[in-house]
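Quick one, tokens below:
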């Protein structure tokens, strides 16, 4: 099997392992998945946090590295992120090691082309060469956990990179949640982890759903990517906010409420022009990164915001009017 498609055994853990005392207790929690080395996006997240009534707990749930192959960018991203709560995604896991058997560690499904998988493996190899020049940071990446547990307003939150069974799991991909079988997997994970909220990323496209389980209503929020556009015709990232108070930010996209705890997808409006310059400097035309990601970074994926919102999720009404006027709904 091509490296980058298989899920290594050491990536896996039982969902019940998340049924443990929380490492984080917060009134406001930001879950920031898929920063992908985007320093302007990191600065935009910091700006969002600064206007909260109280300082939120920030959790970077993996793949905060990817495009940042320059030494300055690698150092800036990792030194900032590792000062907060963080867990390792497949990128950090593979950066910390030297085994090429897993490639990028993405465990891509069959609908991703071999060419794209090969380019991701090549990108990981290039980024690992940068990481090797920072042994202390590399050691800190290796020491990060694969998941974290938080409580917000008394509700338990399972924070994972992939899903509640694997660091690189795809159970929370938007396509996996389009049928009853996929939703049943989420419900089973909530029950085993004794979590009312699951926050994930990994699959690069956002999706959110509220569902009934034996322990009551639960919610899954996959934020897609904090450091890349997530919807067609847009240039912003997305993070997940979980808090005892509703989001006051105009960046709120869609939301739900569980027992008085508010869960919102927030837009991360970073300096897009500066990010494109940074990306082009590391991944010029013809490079693996440019071939795989330039179009998405420039104009977003072929994915519309209304596809991210599933049962029990409500859109910001002002945003809905704006999207309809701009033709940005499928």
């Amino acid at each position: 099997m091509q490296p980058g498609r298989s899920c290594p055994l050491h990536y896996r853990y039982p969902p019940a392992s998340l049924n443990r005392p929380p490492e984080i207790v917060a009134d406001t929690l930001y879950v920031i998945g898929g920063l992908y080395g985007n320093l302007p996006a990191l600065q935009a997240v910091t700006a969002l946090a600064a206007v909260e009534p109280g300082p939120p707990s920030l959790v970077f749930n993996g793949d905060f590295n990817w495009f940042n192959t320059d030494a300055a960018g690698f150092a800036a991203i990792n030194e900032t992120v590792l000062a907060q709560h963080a867990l390792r995604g497949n990128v950090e896991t593979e950066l910390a090691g030297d085994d090429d058997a897993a490639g990028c560690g993405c465990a891509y499904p069959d609908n991703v082309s071999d060419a794209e998988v090969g380019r991701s493996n090549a990108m990981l190899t290039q980024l690992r060469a940068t990481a090797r020049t920072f042994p202390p940071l590399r050691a800190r990446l290796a020491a990060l956990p694969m998941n974290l547990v938080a409580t917000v307003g008394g509700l338990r939150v399972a924070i994972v990179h992939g899903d509640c069974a694997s660091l690189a799991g795809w159970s929370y991909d938007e396509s996996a949640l389009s049928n009853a079988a996929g939703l049943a997997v989420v419900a089973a994970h909530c029950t085993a982890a004794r979590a009312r909220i699951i926050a994930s990323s990994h699959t690069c496209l956002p999706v959110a759903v509220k569902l009934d389980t034996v322990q009551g209503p639960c919610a899954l929020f996959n934020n897609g990517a904090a450091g890349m556009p997530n919807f067609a015709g847009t240039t912003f990232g997305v993070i997940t906010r979980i808090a005892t108070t509703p989001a006051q930010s105009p960046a709120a996209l869609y939301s739900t409420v569980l027992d008085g705890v508010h869960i919102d997808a927030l837009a991360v409006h970073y300096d897009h022009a500066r990010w494109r310059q940074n990306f082009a400097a590391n991944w010029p035309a013809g490079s693996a990164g440019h071939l795989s990601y330039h179009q998405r970074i420039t104009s977003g994926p072929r994915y519309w915001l209304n596809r991210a919102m599933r049962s029990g999720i409500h859109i910001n009404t002002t945003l809905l009017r704006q999207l309809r006027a701009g033709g940005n709904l499928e």
